[in-house]
Design goal:
Chain lengths: 155, 446
């Protein structure tokens, strides 16, 4: 595990971070997905380029968190801050980089006048442990899903 | 981030709409397809946006610590003149880029790319509108020598490719590659100018910057992401796009982008007056580093696409090795990768104006030989343009000693408005300015 030789810097995401995000995602999940990330980064940059953040250490991006403010979804009329995706370079884990990214995003949400931050995670996942430590708690909303019914079941 | 939306007085709003119908013909199609290409995004608004809650105190220059100015009359005459020139130049670039984009927009191979550029154009229109708000909401007559806001607006709306204040906005696009490379390189200069102006001692200007910058982030992505995708297609052998096509367009725009920062030796007055927080060379240095990062990013996309079986570390190693050896790796030559031209390459303004430096920093002493070098590194159709022909003529006269470099800089022809305000009246003509008639560069953001 390399030591953090330069202090961690948190800054807003930009269009030149795509390569780094692809690299972190590949290291974590084992799949190279440049097209997917080009689409996601474009989505966040065109909506609110100040919301999503990256963490820079030793001159390279070692973590990212993508976020934006949305209103009117799922009947939630008040604007909520949404955190969709984040990733930390495995070599840089255990250094509170996720928390630092989260704090920068929370500060942005505050400036936007947003009261609530929302996200979705798999319950037993390590991610949900991290989210709980940040202060997230189960919401009264329940995520529901089902398979699209076959044609004949509908009739 | 809260901002106030402002609509111009009806006659000015209508004038911008009229202009839009001439140069942004696909505007209605953009609005109709907005939800398809930009789902969940706020609808487009032709209005000025002023950020609320920004600092009220000047942070740089000789007025640091004082209250920011909110009226031109609170600036000294020198400051007001200087700032007015910046606002007019900014307005001119916003409208100018729409005219340039319009020329080749239809040649986009991909609908998504085309709609991204269309949105960029609409947002540039809003930026021009924003600058009009600054010109029209206050009385600038002391700084403008009595010229009314109305006349300044008319003048800007009558400009055509060729008559804009900054050279980058006077070049026509040769293909849709230029639309994309322009967004990645020239809008990036815009990002720097807007970022520097966030500190502006004139508060309405400072408050205009954050909303414009948020839109600029999209413009840069609308340049870089298609370039990344083209790099992948080029690596896969798609004959319709090659790295060399992209490289030639980079060579065309990068020198003009560098010149938009103003002369490398200047920028002190902006700092002193509290209008920007970096000198020209400092800002230019940062820009060059950022473009270098962009080129690297696109090259890695190319290498990964060419060798999909390589792990990221291996691909990175190959790239580093190609950059070091300038050789080749399993059929990929260094020449196939993008590279940043030398900062003195093909310059016609600033410290290295007409210096005859090649893409890799090699120097030339013969004008013809240098033009042949340019022909190898610039888009073919651009070589056949009026702009290049004039550049070549002036270069030869400088090399022969007939003109000084300073005179050469002035000799580049410009289109000038000679009457009429509607773009359909064909109201501009080619004219050659004499050095004594004033340098359009004086209005460039320095
Ligand atoms: Fe703009
Ligand atoms: Fe732009």
């Amino acid at each position: 595990m390399p030591e953090l030789s330069t202090p961690l810097r948190i800054r807003p995401l930009d269009e030149l971070d795509i390569g780094s995000i692809v690299r972190i995602d590949e290291r974590v999940g084992g799949t190279y997905r440049p097209d997917y990330w080009e689409g996601r980064v474009m989505f966040y940059l065109r909506r609110d380029p100040q919301a999503s953040q990256v963490a820079v250490s030793d001159g390279k991006v070692v973590g990212f968190m993508l976020a934006d403010v949305r209103a009117g979804e799922f009947g939630l009329e008040e604007p909520s801050g949404w955190i969709e995706r984040f990733g930390i370079d495995p070599d840089y884990r255990g250094r509170d980089i996720g928390r630092a990214l989260f704090q920068a995003i929370a500060a942005h949400f505050r400036a936007m006048g947003v009261a609530k931050i929302r996200t979705l995670a798999i319950q037993s996942d390590a991610v949900s442990g991290f989210l709980t430590k940040l202060g997230f708690a189960p919401a009264p909303l329940v995520a529901l899903e089902m398979m699209v019914p076959a044609d004949r079941e509908q009739r | 981030m809260k901002f106030e939306k402002i609509t111009l007085e009806k006659k000015y709003h209508d004038a911008v709409e009229h202009w839009r119908r001439h140069y942004l013909k696909d505007y209605d199609s953009l609005i109709e397809n907005w939800d398809r290409y930009f789902p969940q995004d706020e609808a487009f608004c032709l209005c000025a946006k002023l950020e609320l809650g920004t600092p009220g105190t000047v942070s740089v220059g000789e007025h640091a610590g004082e209250k920011k100015r909110v009226k031109p009359d609170e600036l000294t005459e020198e400051e007001a003149k200087h700032l007015l020139a910046i606002i007019r130049a900014q307005a001119s670039t916003e409208f100018g880029s729409i005219q340039q984009h319009a020329g080749t927009l239809e040649r986009a191979q991909d609908d998504e790319d085309r709609f991204w550029v269309l949105r960029v154009m609409a947002e540039e229109l809003r930026h021009g509108y924003q600058m009009f708000h600054l010109l029209l909401s206050q009385d600038w007559s002391r700084a403008s020598g009595g010229v009314k806001g109305e006349t300044m607006v008319e003048e800007i709306l009558s400009m055509q490719t060729g008559s804009h204040v900054l050279d980058a906005f006077n070049l026509e696009y040769d293909s849709f590659v230029d639309n994309i490379v322009f967004a990645a390189l020239i809008d990036r200069v815009g990002k720097y100018q807007l970022t520097m102006q966030k500190v502006c001692a004139y508060k309405p200007m400072a408050d205009s910057m954050p909303p414009m910058l948020r839109e600029e982030a999209f413009h840069l992505a609308a340049g870089v992401i298609p370039m990344r995708r083209w790099a992948r297609r080029a690596a896969e052998g798609d004959p319709l796009i090659t790295m060399s096509m992209i490289q030639k367009s980079v060579n065309k725009w990068f020198p003009r982008g560098l010149e938009m920062f103003g002369d490398e030796r200047g920028g002190d007055s902006n700092l002193r007056m509290g209008f920007k927080d970096l000198k020209n060379r400092e800002a230019q240095d940062q820009y060059i580093e950022e473009v270098r990062r962009m080129v690297r990013d696109i090259n890695s996309r190319f290498v990964r696409a060419r060798f999909p079986e390589y792990l990221p570390e291996k691909a990175e190693q190959v790239l580093v090795e190609l950059e070091r050896s300038r050789g080749s790796h399993r059929g990929v030559a260094f020449d196939e990768l993008l590279r940043l031209p030398d900062r003195r390459f093909f310059r016609r303004k600033g410290e290295p104006a007409f210096a005859m430096v090649g893409v890799d920093g090699e120097t030339f002493s013969d004008a013809r030989e240098y033009l042949r070098h340019l022909a190898k590194h610039l888009p073919e159709s651009y070589m056949a343009s009026r702009d290049l022909r004039n550049y070549g003529d002036v270069l030869k006269r400088i090399v022969s000693g007939e003109l000084s470099v300073a005179e050469g800089v002035m000799k580049m022809p410009k289109l000038k408005r000679v009457g009429g305000t509607c773009p359909c009246s064909r109201s501009v003509r080619w004219v050659m300015e004499e050095p004594s008639s004033g340098n359009s560069d004086a209005a460039a953001p320095r």
